Every structure is written in C-alpha cells, then in structure tokens.
Amino acid sequence: MLYFFLSYARGDEDALVQRLYEDLSAEVRLIAGLPRDERVGFVDRTILLGERWPQRLVEALSTCRSFLALMTPRYFQSEACGQEWQIFADRTARFDQQNGVDSSLLKPLMWIPARPGRIHPVASPLQYSSHSLGDLYQRLGVRQLMRLQRHSDDYRTFLFELANQIVSSVEEHPLPDVQRSIDLRSVVSAFHRPAGAGQLTADVDQFAPMLVHFIVAASHRDEMSTVRQRVNTYGDRALAWAPYGPPFPDPVVDYAREIAADHSYRSTVVDLTELARRAEQAARYNQIMVLIVDAWLTRLPEQRQSLTAHATAALRDGGTTAVLIPSSRDDIETREHWQSLSRACREIFDELASDDELYRSNILTHRAFQEELPEVLEVARNRVFSRGAVHRPPGPATDSRPPRIDGPWRAEGDDTAAEDGRDDER
C-alpha cells in the first residue's frame, strides 16, 4: 500500500527531496510495523523526459492514500504538479462527501518559508502545521531543517510527527482506489483553472508560469531534399523536424515543450512564418522567444532571407530571444559541412551570436539539448525580470480618463466647459 505520494516541482533540489522521501519512508514503515523493504511511498523523480504520462505515475496517483505537496513558488507554477494535486483532491472530495468526514489526507508542506501572498489560494486552508515545532517549521521550512546541522533533532521530530499523522489518517480514513482509467492530459491543473471553473482567478495571476514561444526554423522533407541527401529526420512540415532521431524519433520541439513544462514554463510552438508576430508579442508582454534552428536552412535562399529579416526584427523589438542549433553527432553529412553551416548561422544572427548565454550552437546530442535548454530558459527569465517593461493593471480607484492639462493660467474655480464647447464648435 502506498501511504503517501510526494509531489514537488522537479529541479527544486532533487537530491534533497529524495533524501526526504527516503527518511519519511523509513519512519512510516517503522510506525506502521512494516518490513524495511516495503514500498510505502512514491516520488516521480525517476521519470524520464520523453516518457509520456508514464503508467506508474497514473497508478500511484490512483492508489496512494495521502498526498504531500512540497510548496515552493515553482510548485504553484507547474502545470504537472497542479494536475497531480487535482487528481488527488478530487479523490478526497468524493470520499469526504460520501462519509461526512474531513480526512485531511492532502497535506501541503512548507519546503521553503513562504513570502506573503505566495501560497496559492487552494493550498492556504490546507497547510500542514507542526505542533511540537511551533513556529520553527513555519519560519524555516523543511529544507532548512534538513540542511542546518543545529536543527537535525528538529528535523527528526518533524519526520516522526509527520509520519505519525500519515499513518493514523490513512488507517482512519481508507481512501478507495480509482477504478477508472485516468488520462492526465485531460486533467485541468488546480493552479491554472480558467475563469468560471470555480477558481479565484483574480488572485492567482502571480502564479501563472512565464510563456515561452518556440519558433522552429526548419523546413519539410521535400524542400530539404534539394540541398542535402539525408532527409529522414524531416517530416511533411517544419514542426516535424527530429534531428536526434533515431533513437529519439519525436520532433525536437516536442522535447522542448516537455522540458519547458518540467521547469514550470508555459509554451507555444510555431514555424518561421510566425516569428515576426511572436517577437513583437514577446517584447510587449515580457515573454521569452526561443528559435530552434536547422543550420541547413541557410542553404535555402528564400528561407535564409526570411530568417535574416525576422532575426533582425526580433533583435530590434528588444525582446528576450534565444537561439538553439541542434546538430546530431550521428549526422555525418552535417558534420562534414558544419564549418560553413555554422558560419552562415552566425552571419544571420550577427550580434546575438556573440551572446554565449542565449546562443547555443552545435548541440550534438539529445542529452545535451536537455541540459542546455533549461540553462537558456533560466538566463532568459532573469533578463526578462531585470529588463522587461513593468505593466501595472489599473485598480478599482484608478481614473481611466486621459490627463487634461489646463495650463498654469487657470485659476481655481474657473469653469472652462463653456470655452471647451466654443472650441469644439469652431
């Protein structure tokens, strides 16, 4: 039996989260009187990118008896975490309603101390509190209890208290398994519910993930066959380009979207024809734009001209733009022509190509792509925060009328309405 499901935003100190999972599992086994090799919990850190909605994750969400959420700012931005939360929240809501109880099987844990307003409204009424640690847990969070040697005893106390609560609540409220099949892709995140779906959306805009526009600068198989021999990595349209296949046959932009979602970003995907419009949108609304470029596109005159024009416009608009150029080490033809292909790309992107943080060329493997894209997104996000325009929505008391300048000669109490009227009649 899975006593608990540990939900967290991957990238929030995975190794430390794994240690918490193992320590808590040991305490739960001890209190429940189970053998030391009995599996009592689930954490999804071993799930690989590209593994689409793995069955073991669905099974764990369908059968776990309690749900622990490690609260961080990124946790509430993650759509995947919000989907996990929603599935378990639906299970407990049905159970509590049918049995007339408050099972308290969903327990949000303070991983780091929360700043005012940074706890999502759906989690605020459910927070776990430690009776023995008082405000120490609220002030430090689980992470600091684990990291600071002087709080090692407090951490052990916290573990024992939490494990006791898990075992007692699970045994007192036997939550039934989900009998129907769950399609995670159809589940709406508890943190990103649309207006009218029972969510206080006016209060949660701050938790919305940053938007990334992925622009695929590639072409289709027929056109690419005019400039190169190896075209098995291309499809019927630009978005189907799969430079790492085989053994990774899916379009590279699919992996990019998974990586972005895994690091708490929303994303859109378009081809090169949409670059100018997306560049303007990204600059205006403080969003990120990532060009995923096939270097062979530079051998197509019309495509090269279009890419040059759009790249110039993107830089002129002042948005945060990154360029990634995959080039598989298994593609012998690309390796033979790489020097000229690389030079052509640098000529097109000009000053952007000198930015080593946002211009990543010659990404040789799928693994390297997985490692470099998160770095690029982090750099881009920091630049948006430091350089982006500030948009403050008007409050209820804001006067939306345009300002009117009457001039320094206007005396108090003067009525200019008549004069305005006369001006209008002239």
Query: Structural class per helix/strand content?
Result: alpha/beta
SS field, number of helical segments: 13
Secondary-structure element pattern, one letter each: EHEHEHHEHHEHHEHEHEHEHH
Please state how the strands of the largest beta sheet are arranged side by side.
6-5-7-8-9
- Output the radius of gyration: 27 Å
Question: What is the CATH class of the largest domain?
Answer: Alpha Beta
Measured by DSSP, the beta-strand proportion falls in 5-15%
Largest sheet: 5 strands, parallel
Shape, per Cα inertia axes = elongated
| Share of helical residues | 40-55%
CATH fold description of the largest domain? Rossmann fold
Tally of extended strands? 9
Average residue-wise pLDDT: 82
CATH architectural grouping of the largest domain: 3-Layer(aba) Sandwich
Number of domains: 2
End-to-end CA span: 85 Å
Contiguous uncertain segments of 5+ residues: 47-52, 195-206, 407-426
Protein architecture, described:
- The protein is of the alpha/beta class and 426 residues long.
- The chain has two domains: 4-186, Rossmann fold, CATH 3.40.50; 209-387, Rossmann fold (3-Layer(aba) Sandwich), CATH 3.40.50.
- The protein is built from 13 helices and nine strands.
- Helix 10 links the parallel strand 7 and strand 8 (320-326).
- The protein starts with a strand and ends with a helix.
